[in-house]
Specification:
The protein is an alpha/beta fold. It folds into 2 domains: about 140 residues, 3-Layer(aba) Sandwich (Rossmann fold), CATH 3.40.50; about 60 residues, Arc Repressor Mutant, subunit A (Orthogonal Bundle). Helices cover about 50% and strands about 15% of the residues. It is built from 10 helices and 6 strands; from the N terminus they run βαβαβαβαβαβααααα. A 6-stranded parallel β-sheet has the order 2-1-3-4-5-6, with helices on both faces. β3, α3 and β4 form a beta-alpha-beta unit. α4 packs across α6 and α7 crosses α10. The termini are far apart. This is DNA-binding response regulator. Keywords: DNA-binding, Phosphoprotein. InterPro entries: CheY-like_superfamily, NreC/VraR/RcsB-like_REC, Sig_transdc_resp-reg_C-effctor, Sig_transdc_resp-reg_receiver, Tscrpt_reg_LuxR_C, WalR-like, WH-like_DNA-bd_sf. It comes from Methylocystis echinoides.
């Protein structure tokens, strides 16, 4: 039986090293590539075609949602497992909408990550228990996220706006024209009912897309 090839995407080298060691202690697991940003992840995926991608969402520039969407556009069969600190249901649901097959938080046990990798590699879907509870609470209650009606790219642009990125910076990160970014910006405001950019930031924080410390 051939080894399961894995690509790690996280912008912290020490974090990647720790998870590489954890994963390669598992029989049949082999980390074949690492990347620290969305563009490098896409390029590395095209070069290595790993069986599973383990993807953080908090990346410099374009985030993990954009990386997921881009990889899945190139390979609709790509198996991507999100592994992140973001524990809100909004990010999890957008990750699945972008094409992820699993979502596990970094507060989960190591055994949960290993199990999720195996599940995703086998064609299944994986959720850590805390995220499953968050999604269930949202679906059963009245806590529908304000970003529920946004697409993955709109969600990514909202995140970047909330982080204080300019239209020009966002356009460069996502390979879009400034006019297109401005149009997205207007559409997002309309969909979420925001009157100002400050209101957008407040909504993004409330939805768990960014932490208050990272917002501007």
């Amino acid at each position: 039986m051939s080894a399961l090839s894995i690509m790690l995407v996280d912008d912290h080298p020490i974090v990647r090293e720790g998870y590489r060691r954890l994963l390669e202690r598992q029989p049949g697991f082999r980390v074949v590539r690492e990347a620290d940003n969305a563009a490098a992840a896409y390029q590395s995926y095209r070069e290595a075609s790993p069986d599973v991608v383990i993807m953080d969402l908090s990346l410099p520039g374009a985030g993990g949602l954009e990386a997921i969407r881009h990889i899945r556009q190139w390979d609709k069969n790509a198996r991507i497992l999100v592994f992140t600190m973001h524990s809100g249901s909004a990010f999890a649901l957008k990750a699945f909408e972008a094409g992820a097959a699993g979502y596990v938080t970094k507060s989960s046990d190591a055994a949960d990550l290993v199990k999720a990798v195996k599940t995703v590699a086998g064609g299944g879907r994986a959720l850590s228990d805390d995220i499953a509870r968050e999604i269930a609470a949202e679906r059963l209650g009245d806590s529908r996220s304000v970003v529920a009606d946004l697409g993955p790219r709109e969600t990514e642009i909202l995140r970047l706006v909330a982080m204080g990125k300019t239209t020009e910076e966002i356009a460069a990160f996502l390979n879009l024209s400034t006019k297109t970014v401005q149009n997205y910006h207007y559409q997002i405001k309309s969909k979420v009912g925001a009157r100002t950019d400050a209101h957008l930031v407040w909504l993004a924080i409330g939805s768990g897309l960014v932490e208050a410390a990272n917002a501007e």
